[in-house]
Design a protein that fits this description.
The structure holds three protein chains of three kinds. Chain B has helices spanning about 10-25, 35-40, 45-55, 60-65, 70-85, 140-150, 165-170, 200-205, 210-225, 290-310, 320-325, 330-340, 345-370; strands at about 90, 100-105, 115-120, 230-245, 250-270, 280-290. By secondary structure, chain B is an alpha+beta fold. Chain C is an alpha/beta fold. Classes of the chains: A alpha+beta, B alpha+beta, C alpha/beta.
């Protein structure tokens, strides 16, 4: 079982050392046939953002983007599609993650290894999120207007 | 402006590159700058370069800072040059910054905002006194900073994202309605600015503008050449998850996240059009990285440009052409720098013309003196 | 390079080094109209050229249905009509039955590039129709022999040409290709 939704597999995997992710993907690639639907590519993506005042769309700038879309076929004919889009400039990493995405989505033999990797990446990400919450929690501010409250009260 | 081809100087040009490299290498510490140190310890510098370069690539921004020895304009230029060599693979769907994973969120309009205020990293409440202890920092001490900070805190129970302050004001009917425009946003990387331009072109141009230029224009408005009088409804800094269609399912997937600073200002109210009630006016600023002065300046200019577009500009900061064509760092530094290049023939011709004119003036002078005599 | 970085050899035409080589050869054949370049990619010549030329920014028309469905995503080009597309791939043996874009005076570069599949092509070819070429990039005149090219393409090309407007042709046989840019004047000779 994997509880993490597919939309977060790629970022979870990307939170791990890429060497490790590539090594696992490679082991799957050697045991089944990998066909490219589109070519693994790296380039740029234009980031479109909704402005906070009038909700108009505009372009904030560009991002490096790597993407891949593959079809995996096991020796006994089982097929599964995998894909990934990353904010990164290594097409090889996108391809490795696309392979793992396909392996887990299609529950191809050995998918549990890939799923365990996703779980680990997810925890690594969670640690990063926790750091940010620490930043917020330690600077939460409660300004009070002078005179409205007990002078001693204030920020504590 | 005109150019002449010159030749020669190859040895000197090669020498100049070697000299520039020499000045970097003569650092007595013997330690080359490490990109991760630039990215983390000089994070605000890196922020500036990613936003002015218009490419969210903190690692390459750090490299550019190292390579150009701290010159932000040159570093941004290098990022622009890099991006011009890459194919455009996609434009993301419209991202919503309400999903931002904040590290800072404040309002100067209300003390109690839904979700609460969190100061996050800032220098707003610190004295600008030099910390001399940093001059000779103990590496062990430095390494323990992060550990100590994270260790000292209990588990924080906070939501993943926060509502926008403006949404609350809008619900109360104090703000103008949201734009219904379904137009494709203007792509400044492909289309030249031909005025009038849509607001999306102005926002995109300012988002990659040079911080100092934006600040100067916005400051002129604040000081008196304008009348925006803003209140910061919300200033937030954090990571926006970038959602793109999954190549297989087409469902949104997270491709990564981007550090963004965002600011919404509320300004003087305007009597409503036709039979609408008067409402506050608004300005919006955003940029890659953590750069609050830039986001605030942009928000003020967004507001002043809206006025200029609607009623015609009365001040420089309200004139879209004046603002948008003069805030880009790569454009303006390029123009200023090109004056250093040889203009020998142009200047020779300037001198010839001056001498001819002086000669004519002298001749005319002598002629008039003779007449007097 | 590890296995994961090297899609299998059958993808030669899709690999960057091959695409760079083909692009270089395209520059060469467009500079010297009538000269023939070898295509060493392991796929049909016209497809290898398309692989080197197209990306998500261009439109591509395939009026004769030469491109297999699973190839389209790899080319990344948006599908367009023959009247508007930047690139058109067609069977040169068939009669020309559409009117490609010739560009505008402000933007003549938007004139279409047509990749035509022909039976055979060579600077010296038995059974081919000689095309006598003159114009920029050709010292004096040169001959290119083609078989399996319907004359309607060359007639239409001449009819559409009003320099700088016009269309550029790339003739492709199994292993070779040659360019006939809009600046080249073509006289169709007698078959040998």
């Amino acid at each position: 079982m994997i509880d993490i939704p597919r939309q977060e597999w790629a970022t979870a995997l990307f939170a791990l050392p890429t060497k490790e992710v590539k090594a696992v993907a490679e082991s799957f690639a050697s045991s089944c046939q990998v066909r490219e639907v589109t070519l693994p590519q790296s380039g740029l993506g234009l980031l479109t953002l909704r402005d906070g005042a009038f909700h108009e769309a505009f372009h904030l700038g560009e991002l490096p983007v790597a993407r891949a879309h593959v079809v995996l076929r096991t020796q006994d004919g089982q097929e599964s599609s995998g894909g990934a889009v990353l904010i990164d400039d290594r097409a090889t990493v996108a391809r490795a993650i696309a392979i793992l995405d396909g392996v887990i989505a299609g529950r191809l033999p050995g998918w549990e290894t890939a799923a365990a990797l996703v779980e680990r990446g997810y925890s690594a990400r969670a640690a990063k999120f926790a750091e940010r919450k620490h930043i917020l929690a330690s600077t939460r501010v409660d300004f009070s207007l002078l005179g409205q409250m007990d002078e001693e009260d204030g920020d504590e | 402006m005109s150019y002449v081809a010159i030749k020669g100087g190859k040895a000197a040009i090669d020498g100049a590159a070697a000299v520039t490299e020499f000045l970097r290498g003569r650092d007595d510490s013997g330690e080359p700058l490490n990109l991760s140190a630039i990215e983390c310890q000089l994070r605000l510098l890196t922020s500036r370069v990613v936003s002015e370069g218009g490419l969210y690539h903190p690692r390459l921004a750090s490299l550019a800072i190292k390579q150009f020895q701290g010159d932000t304009l040159e570093a941004a230029f290098a990022l622009r040059a890099y991006r011009s060599t890459k194919p455009r693979l996609l434009a993301t769907p419209v991202q919503n910054s309400t999903n931002m994973r904040c590290i800072r969120r404040i309002s100067s309009a209300f003390k109690d905002i839904p979700g609460g205020q969190m100061l996050g990293p800032n220098y707003d409440f610190t004295l600008r006194l030099l910390r001399f202890d940093l001059a000779d920092e103990d590496p062990n001490e430095f390494r323990s900073i992060a550990r100590k900070f994270l260790g000292a805190l209990p588990e924080a129970d906070l939501p993943d994202s926060f509502p926008k302050v403006l949404d609350a004001l809008r619900a109360e009917g104090l703000l103008p309605p949201v734009a219904e425009s379904r137009n494709e946003p203007f792509d400044i990387t492909r289309e030249p600015l031909v005025f009038p331009v849509p607001r999306s072109a102005a926002l995109a141009t300012m988002a990659r503008a040079e911080t100092g230029s934006l600040l100067a224009m916005a400051y002129s408005n604040m000081r008196g050449y304008g009348d925006v009088h803003p209140t910061v409804a919300e200033l937030r800094v954090g990571y926006i998850p970038v959602m793109v269609p999954h190549p297989v399912t087409g469902e949104p997937m997270e491709a990564g996240e981007v550090l963004v600073t965002e600011c919404e200002v509320v300004a003087m109210y305007e009597s409503g059009k036709a039979d609408c009630l008067p409402t506050f006016t608004l300005g919006y600023g955003a940029c890659f990285g953590h750069n609050e002065v830039k986001a605030i300046s942009m928000a003020i200019l967004d507001r002043s440009l809206q006025k200029g577009m609607q009623d015609g500009p009365e001040n420089p900061s309200e004139d879209p052409e004046f603002v948008l064509l003069h805030v880009d760092g790569v454009d303006s530094m390029g123009f200023a720098s090109h004056y250093k290049m040889p203009h020998y023939v142009t200047f020779q011709s300037d001198m010839d013309r001056l001498r001819t004119t002086q000669g004519k003036a002298r001749a005319a002078d002598q002629a008039s003196q003779m007449e007097v005599v | 390079m590890s296995d994961i970085q090297t899609p299998r050899a059958s993808h030669g035409a899709w690999l960057s080094p091959m695409q760079q080589q083909i692009f270089r050869d395209l520059l060469h054949v467009f500079s010297y109209p009538g000269r023939v370049a070898e295509c060493t990619a392991d796929s049909m010549t016209w497809l290898a050229l398309l692989a080197a030329l197209t990306d998500g920014e261009v439109t591509l028309a395939d009026p004769h249905g030469l491109i297999a469905a699973d190839i389209w995503p790899k080319l990344e080009a948006r599908s367009g009509t023959p009247g508007k597309a930047t690139f058109i791939v067609a069977d040169g043996g068939r009669i020309m039955d559409f009117q490609p874009c010739t560009g505008s005076l402000e933007s003549p570069e938007t004139g279409a590039t047509l990749l035509l599949r022909v039976a055979a092509l060579g600077e010296d070819l038995d059974g081919g129709v000689p095309l006598n070429l003159t114009g920029p990039g050709i010292q004096g005149n040169t001959e290119l022999f083609v078989s399996g090219l319907h004359p309607s393409w060359l007639i239409a090309r001449a009819g559409l040409a009003a320099f700088p407007l016009g269309i550029d042709l790339l003739l492709c046989d199994e292993r070779r290709f040659a360019a006939l840019p809009r600046t080249t004047h073509i006289e169709i000779g007698e078959m040998l």
